[in-house]
């Protein structure tokens, strides 16, 4: 993937502590089904990573527990016409994203979403900086995430 080795967190981030294992495993499973590992750019060519977890608003207490347990992130209400009200837990600060990288590396995702995570993780470890959209590694990451999200028909090998 993009010729950049992202197999370890930087030495300065080794101090990151995690919640109890059982809770981390639960969050990993929930994230496998409900989370988004987002890379976004604005018109000024600035790229940022975010972790988002969207749930129906009647599940807000669960998102508040996640925020309290992790000690970071923010929660906001999202309304879409014709749908149940939604609540979103979002993490976007680099230090907090590094904590999530440590968590998901230790408690890996099991679905196809793991491919999204791997691209997102590489971006987080590349450092988020303004004006980084011109970096060819970042452009390749956007291509990798588009490719990972394409539906691929699974076959059982029989004709």
Give a structural overview.
It contains 5 helices and 4 strands, in the order αββαββααα. It has a single domain, classed as Homing endonucleases (Endonuclease I-creI, Roll). The two termini are 32 Å apart. It has a 4-stranded antiparallel sheet with strand order 1-2-4-3. α4 runs antiparallel to α5 (136-149). 42% of the residues lie in helices and 18% in strands. The model is unreliable at 1-12 (pLDDT under 50). It has 159 residues and is α+β, with helices and mostly antiparallel strands. The longest helix is centred in the first third of the chain and has 14 residues, at 21-34.
Averaged pLDDT:
80
Q: Number of folding domains?
A: 1
- Gyration radius, rounded: 17 Å
What percent of residues adopt helix (DSSP H or I)?
40-55%
Layout: helices, strands, pairs:
Layout: H1 21-34, E1 35-41, E2 47-56, H2 60-70, E3 74-78, E4 86-91, H3 94-106, H4 113-126, H5 136-149
Antiparallel strand pairs: 1-2, 2-4, 3-4
Properties at a glance:
159 residues; 4 strands; disordered N terminus; alpha+beta; 5 helices; single chain; 4-stranded antiparallel beta sheet; Endonuclease I-creI
């Amino acid at each position: 993937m993009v010729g950049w080795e992202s197999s370890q967190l930087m030495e300065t981030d080794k101090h990151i502590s995690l919640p109890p294992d059982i809770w981390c495993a639960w969050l990993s499973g929930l994230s496998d089904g409900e989370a988004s590992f987002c890379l976004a750019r604005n018109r000024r060519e600035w790229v940022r990573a975010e972790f988002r977890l969207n749930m129906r608003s009647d599940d807000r207490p669960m998102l508040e527990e996640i925020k309290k347990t992790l000690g970071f992130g923010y929660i906001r209400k999202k309304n879409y016409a014709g749908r149940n009200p939604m609540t979103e837990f979002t993490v976007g600060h680099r230090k907090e994203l590094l904590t999530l990288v440590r968590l998901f590396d230790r408690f890996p995702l099991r679905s196809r979403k793991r491919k999204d995570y791997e691209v997102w993780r590489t971006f987080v470890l590349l450092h988020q900086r303004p004006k980084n959209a011109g970096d060819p590694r970042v452009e390749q990451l956007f291509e990798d995430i588009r490719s990972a999200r394409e539906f691929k028909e699974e076959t059982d090998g029989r004709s």
